[in-house]
Amino acid sequence: MNDTKLLKSKGLEQKLYLTYHQDGLLDLTIGIIIALFGLVILADQPAFVGLIAIPGVLYIPFKQSISRPRMGLIRFESEQKQALKLTLSMLLGVAVLIALIVLFTLTGGMPENIQALIRDNMRLIFSGFLGVSLLAVATLLNNRRFYLYAVVGVLLVWASMLVPFHLGIAVMALAAILILTGIALLVQFIRDYPLEDE
Amino acid sequence: MTTKSDFDVLLIAGDIDKLVHEPARLMLLSILYTIDSADFVFLQKQMGLTRGNFSTHMSKLEEAHYINVKKEFVDRKPMTVLSITDEGRAALEKYRGQMKKILAALG
Prior knowledge:
The complex is a heterodimer of chains A (198) and B (107).
Chain A lengths: L9 H11 L4 H19 L10 H18 L2 E2 L3 H27 L6 H9 L1 H19 L4 H18 L4 H26 L6
Helix pairs in contact in A: 2-3, 2-8, 4-6, 6-7, 7-8
Chain B lengths: L3 H7 L7 H4 L1 H12 L2 E3 H8 L3 H13 L3 E8 L2 E8 L1 H20 L2
Antiparallel strand pairs in B: 1-3, 2-3
Helix pairs in contact in B: 1-6
């Protein structure tokens, strides 16, 4: 396959990506991942962080069983590249969440001034990680809604500093936004793309 | 106002590839140009054509070697997958260049 493209077709490419993601499954999957992370924070149970990756594993099977029979198949790049991007995105997200858990639970071994810095800016650091993760998903998987989620996520965490309220609630609120958006999109998608007899 | 040299440019219109110029085929080639590949169902639904109509356009582009049409098994289901060829890519790029000149000559 010749990868040279003389024509700039970014606008059309964006529209096709939007179409590809209109089933809301990515929003649902990542919303559930964020909700699980929120539960880990609220319950103060870092041991359960391993559960967070489970929804990510289910994304492709759901895409294949729900979306593909209705919408058909589109490959934006070679399957290997696509699979690599998706795996990288999921691994990045999980790695970031685990890094956060490690950072906030193992600060005891660090110098006092570093501990104080982390303690005083914990939510700010967390908002940075959250924003960057969601921006990475937006860029890697070409889904513009995730730029908005990144902004909303950061604002919710900052709100939890200013009001104040528990960080877990801010995370759960973000998760609820993603999940509800995902469900709404999925319902609309199923209406727009009914299953046809072969 | 159209000058004589503009008029000469407008003569390019006679040289336009009618295979590419047809709206449905132009849409199909444009989509395939942007991506790696897509199946019959996706393209037909996105273009809003009937199956028969889409098949006709697909066949014409395939005969001209502008697209590849392959039967694949994806998740154990048969699919008709389309992709653009190098000739198709070149034809679309040439068409765009010609249309740009024509529209520029019109002012």
